[in-house]
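Entry 14. Ran structure prediction on the chain below.
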Amino acid sequence: MRSSITKERNYKKQVLVCCGVNCLTSGNDIILDKFQSRMKEMRLDNEINVTKTGCFGFCARGPIVEILPDKIFYTEITLDDVDKIIDKHLLKNQEIEELLYTNPLTKEKISKPKNMDFYKKQKKIALRNCGIIDPENIDDYVLADGYTALDKALKMTPEEVVEIIKKSGLRGRGGAGFPTGKKWEIALHNKAPKKYVVCNADEGDPGAFMDRSILEGDPHSIVEAMAVCGYAIGAEYGLVYIRAEYPNAMKILAKAIKDAKNHGFLGKNIYNTNFNFDIQLKYGAGAFVCGEETALIRSMQGKRGEPVNKPPFPAERGYKNSPTNVNNVETLANIPVIIKKGAEWFRSFGTENSPGTKVFALAGKINNTGLIEVPMGTTLREIIYEIGGGIKNGKKFKAVQTGGPSGGCLTMDDLDTPIDFDNLVAKGSMMGSGGMIIMDEDNCMPAVAKFYLDFTVDESCGKCTPCRIGNKRLLEILKRITDGEGTEDDLDTLKELSLIIKDSALCGLGQTAPNPVLSTLEKFWDEYVAHVRDKKCPSGQCKALIKYVINNKCIGCTLCARICPESCITGSPKQRHYIDAEKCIKCGSCYEACKFHAINRD
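Output, structure tokens:
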């Protein structure tokens, strides 16, 4: 099959158009359409192929287009640039310098991704095909050695397949970091007439889009991995639990499953063996708690998505009371390449206890936001200052939240910590699914803790008292503190209650919900004290604690008075103005507008 596809393809050039979620919101679907229609109009579509791909990762510089075989990378292109790329590059082989990426430090124009700081330290295993192949074309995946891992696995015994995954040291990328091979082994040794493989695609962390990008950029890798897992544990049925708010991922994955069936990679007697395997989609309503495997399984069975006590673990008794193996999307994306290249190859990346790579969604106050994949053991400093390009607008780095709402804040002191599962836990945070939000000097840490707790309170299923009521009390205290009504006693209560919730909540959501509170209390204690004792917000973000005052730099330009929505600034032209504190709604319009630094925000 692979050779017949190769013969059909003889393009002189290929235009890869990033259609990841961020580039799509920037209009790359329209750019894709224009490239394709122009190629047809010019009757060049047999010579120049235009390919829709998954996410390139460099979201801060989208929309992005790459030209092959030259490997020239154009960033921040517009619809008007399409004709320019066709006329100059595709027809005349001329690089278009003004569309190349500019290094913000050296001002050097860089044409190839391998020479960009954003990509230099990355190693793509889970994202290996994203931004390279057309996710909706199974031939593209086959040409990228797709389904050869399944072929190889079917020539081994299930025990041998499980042993490779165990030796690889792959740990679950959904957050907990449980050894994947161990999970598979438990399911394999549980004898039952039916077993199930479940892909957890219920990604719900704020700012995280790792799993979504894999599903939208390389869906067949998940289909293949689930089939390998099915063979290894003795299952003939696979289910993907995907939240219905990911319609594009659902559509692409459904097509991949259908195409895999039509090509004989799913269904009966796969690769002329006695192995049968099929996959169906199960849609979730978008509840964060359903990322927890027991809640997910209940939801798939039409029940309320609530966790249950373990044991029994799903690998012992899960979906329909049968042994069920649950892995998240990123974990599964590693499986085919581990089978193909071996456990030792995989262990050559990462750290001793956390082999391989990890995908992170970089967000917040950082120059190069986007999706990255780095070997475990890469330091936060390398990620933030080399790959991420440093903090926006020259501000000072303050903290980074890893692990989403279940994680914690790390500070300047942690920048040289090699990131892996164990090091992050030792520092009071966690890997989580891979959300990484960078904060600068303007972020208020009690407000950050309140933001994450507000999220987990909303997402709690309400089954256990510590989570349902305890987290709500924590949120109320944080609201009092950021409203300037907190007391020093509140700080003791915050810590004591957080520890009780961690020890007594039923599932991971409740047990980890207080992490942002505890980590910010530990590392930013002075900020909390300033809020409750001095009634001040050092970062100037808590509106109730802010006071705007015009200082003697005021020259009476009247701009602040004209822009104030409440007309609470008075003064004559060329005379110092004054703010009526009683009327001021603290919107900050005057502070932002003043060109003479004449307004203090205390």
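The radius of gyration is 27 Å. Will compare against last week's run tomorrow.
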